Amino acid sequence: MPKIWNEARLQKLIENEIEESLTLEYKSAEALDRNETKKKEITKDVSAMANSAGGTIIYGISEYSLTEKRHLPERITPVERSKFPREWVEQIIQAIRPRIEGIVIHSINLSSSENHVAFAIEIPQSNTAHQASDHRYYKRFNFQAVPMEDYEIRDVMFREQTPNIVLNFLIQVTQDSQNLVIQAHNYGSAFAQYVAVFLDLPVQILQSVEHKMNLKDGGKMYRHRLTNLNQEFADEQFRANFPLLRSMTMNWKIPLNLDFEKLRESDLTIKYKVYADNALPKESKILLKEIEIVDLRSKSNKV
Question: How much is the pTM?
Answer without folding.
Answer: 0.63
